[in-house]
Design goal:
This is ferredoxin--NADP(+) reductase. Its EC number is 1.18.1.2. It catalyses: 2 reduced [2Fe-2S]-[ferredoxin] + NADP(+) + H(+) = 2 oxidized [2Fe-2S]-[ferredoxin] + NADPH. It is a single chain. This protein is an alpha/beta fold. 18% of the residues lie in helices and 29% in strands. Strand 1 and strand 2 form a beta hairpin.
C-alpha cells in the first residue's frame, strides 16, 4: 500500500473481496478511471454493476454501485468515477494509487445487459457523464456484434475533457483483441459536448430531434421500435425524459425477467 494515501488495511467478508488497485488515470479535475485486480471466481455479464468501496470513518465498509467498464473477458476490472470533494466515498476513492486496496462486491447485477433486450438490428447506448462506463464493457463484448448490425455509443458531456476514452472509441476499438476487426464495420461513436465548442454540440434529445444522432450511421433514419434496441445510463433527467419518449414511440421497457426494447440503469456512484 502506498504511504501517502494512508488508507487502512481492509479485510475480506462473505460479501466483499479485497482487491489491489493496478492503475489510475485522471482525465481532469472531476473525472478519473482506475483498474483493480479481478478474483478468479468473479463472473459478470457485460453491462453489470458491482459494489465497490473503502473503509468508512466508522470502520465499516463504505460502498457504492459502479458499473464495470472492462469487458467480461478482461483479466482486470475497470471503473469510471466522478470526483466529489465532499462525497463520502469519492472524496477518498479519487486519492487511490496503484498498490492500494479496495473492497469489491462478490455479486454483480444490473439491467444493462443483452439478456434484457429483444432481438434487433441496431443497438443504441445513450450515456451522460460516467454513465458511459457499462457501455465500454458492452461495446467490447463479441456477442453484441453477433446480435446487432450496428452498435452505437452516444456520450454527452459538459466539457471536451469529460470525454473519457474518446480516442479508443473514436478509433472504433481498433486495438481490442476480440472485437477490433468487426467493430471497424459495426461500431459507431457519437460524442457530444454541451458547454464548450466541439464538432457536435447539444444534449442527446436535441441530436435525436434534428437527426444528427443518426447522420453518420449506415442506416440514417430515426428510431424504430421494431428493429432498434436502446440502453440508457447517466443522469436521471435524461433517463426519465427519453424513457417517456421511447414509451410513447412504442418501446417497451425490458428487464432480466422480461426482455424489452429499451433498458435503463439506476445505480450510481457518489
Amino acid at each position: 500500500m502506498s504511504t501517502d494515501t494512508a488508507l487502512p488495511e481492509l479485510t475480506p467478508t462473505t460479501a466483499l473481496s479485497v482487491e489491489t488497485v493496478q492503475s489510475v488515470h485522471h482525465w481532469n479535475e472531476h473525472l478519473f478511471s482506475f483498474s483493480v485486480s479481478r478474483p478468479d471466481s468473479f463472473r459478470f455479464r457485460s453491462g453489470e454493476f458491482v459494489m465497490i468501496g473503502l473503509q468508512g470513518d466508522n470502520g465499516k465498509p463504505l460502498l457504492r454501485a459502479y458499473s464495470v467498464a472492462s469487458p467480461s473477458y478482461d483479466e482486470k476490472l475497470d471503473f469510471l468515477s466522478i470526483k466529489v470533494e465532499d462525497g463520502p466515498l469519492t472524496s477518498k476513492l479519487q486519492k487511490v494509487q496503484p498498490g492500494d486496496n479496495i473492497y469489491l462486491g462478490r455479486k454483480p447485477t444490473g439491467t444493462l445487459v443483452a439478456d434484457a433486450l429483444l432481438p434487433g438490428k441496431r443497438l443504441f447506448m445513450l450515456s451522460t457523464g460516467t454513465g458511459l462506463a457499462p457501455f465500454l464493457s458492452v461495446a467490447r463484448d463479441p456477442d453484441i456484434y453477433d446480435m446487432f448490425d450496428e452498435v452505437v455509443i452516444v456520450h454527452s458531456v459538459r466539457r471536451v475533457s469529460d470525454l473519457a476514452f474518446h480516442d479508443e472509441l473514436a478509433g472504433k476499438l481498433a486495438d481490442d483483441p476480440l472485437v477490433g476487426d468487426v467493430a471497424q464495420e459495426k461500431f459507431h461513436y457519437v460524442p457530444t459536448v454541451t458547454r464548450e465548442p466541439f464538432h457536435t454540440t447539444g444534449r442527446i434529445d436535441a441530436l435525436i430531434e434534428d437527426g444528427r444522432l443518426f447522420a453518420g450511421l449506415p442506416s440514417a433514419h430515426g428510431f424504430n421500435p421494431e428493429t432498434d434496441r436502446i440502453m440508457m445510463c447517466g443522469s436521471m433527467e435524461m433517463i426519465k425524459s427519453l424513457g417517456a419518449k421511447f414509451e410513447e414511440m412504442g418501446f417497451p421497457e425490458g428487464s432480466n425477467a422480461q426482455p424489452g426494447a429499451y433498458v435503463i440503469e439506476k445505480a450510481f456512484a457518489g
